[in-house]
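Long-time lurker, first post. I've been practising inverse folding by hand and with some scripts of my own, and I keep getting stuck on stretches where the structure tokens seem ambiguous. Below is the full token string for one chain I'm working on. Before anyone asks, I'm not after the true native sequence, just a reasonable design that respects the backbone. If someone could post their per-position residues I'd love to compare against what I wrote down in my notebook.
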């Protein structure tokens, strides 16, 4: 019988963080949502419901449920969901013990502010992130999970939550450390754009033979969704993230959905050539540095 090694989790902090340690909360929370969204779109595939194109608390919960049940690309279940949940309970008990030492259970879910403002659709990340991270690790035997960025934030003493006080607006990331002051960042429309771009490429650029350039996508977003966006921002907040999670590829001709091994090969070759070009720049600069330093 083969023994499956249980992956380790990021440790809980000795105490909550100071304000100086809070600077990464928005970036790490976006990293979590990005990984979750990428895994969700990989599971859903190009045949998914392209009518539902807005990121909100409801979609976040659906993404979370789907990824816990379906995993990330390449993952395989090592045990049953029931066994994984049972194992995850010990992680949650450790979290509760830590929360007790902090002596502020309300702070852990940021429910003090949420209750006062009647944020019924808030998602408390701290305790649930620990639980979901543990379930995924035990279920798939994976050291890295979509919840790892939140667990790592917590290991630094920062707890975060996602809230949507206005159902017509984008969610808000709220974080808290040792200070009673809450840090807050509004989520922009980057996830809406990723969903729209993924849906567009699934219909119009299904593989490398139907590439679409960035300016064409910007025009589509303006014409069909009344979203005016510059190509540079679309590349940064939508196209690059979708490439990082292996959903789309690109060549000199444009962008396309990754459908076949040939699509992947062409995109790999294109990006490998860019890496090689950058390596030549590094080597040339290093040569110049040595020459200047010696003379």
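-- Answer (accepted) --
I ran through it position by position. Result:
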């Amino acid at each position: 019988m083969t023994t499956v090694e249980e992956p380790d989790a990021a440790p809980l902090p000795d105490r909550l963080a100071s304000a100086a340690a809070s600077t990464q909360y928005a970036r790490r929370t976006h990293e979590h949502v990005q990984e979750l969204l990428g895994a969700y779109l990989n599971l859903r595939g190009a045949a998914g419901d392209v009518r539902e194109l807005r990121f909100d608390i409801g979609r976040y919960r659906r993404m979370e449920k789907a990824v816990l049940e379906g995993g990330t690309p390449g993952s395989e279940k090592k045990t049953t969901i029931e066994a994984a949940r049972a194992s995850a309970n010990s992680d949650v008990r450790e979290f509760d013990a830590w929360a007790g030492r902090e002596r502020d259970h309300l702070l852990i879910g940021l429910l003090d502010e949420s209750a006062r403002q009647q944020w019924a659709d808030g998602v408390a990340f701290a305790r649930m992130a620990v639980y979901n991270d543990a379930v995924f690790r035990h279920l798939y035997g994976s050291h890295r999970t979509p919840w790892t960025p939140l667990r790592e934030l917590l290991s630094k003493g920062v707890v975060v939550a996602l809230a949507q006080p206005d159902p017509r607006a984008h969610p808000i990331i709220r974080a808290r450390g040792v200070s009673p002051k809450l840090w807050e960042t509004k989520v922009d429309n980057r996830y809406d754009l990723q969903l729209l771009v993924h849906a567009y490429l699934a219909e119009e650029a299904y593989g490398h033979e139907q590439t679409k350039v960035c300016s064409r996508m910007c025009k589509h977003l303006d014409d069909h969704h009344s979203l005016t966006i510059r190509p540079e921002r679309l590349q940064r907040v939508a196209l690059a993230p979708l490439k990082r999670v292996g959903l789309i590829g690109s060549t000199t001709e444009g962008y396309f959905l990754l459908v076949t091994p040939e699509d992947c090969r062409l995109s790999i070759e294109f990006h490998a050539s860019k890496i090689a070009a950058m390596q030549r720049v590094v080597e040339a600069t290093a040569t110049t540095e040595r020459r200047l330093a010696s003379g």
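A couple of notes from the structure itself: The chain has a mean pLDDT of 82. The chain is about 55% helix and 10% strand. Happy to go over any region you disagree with.
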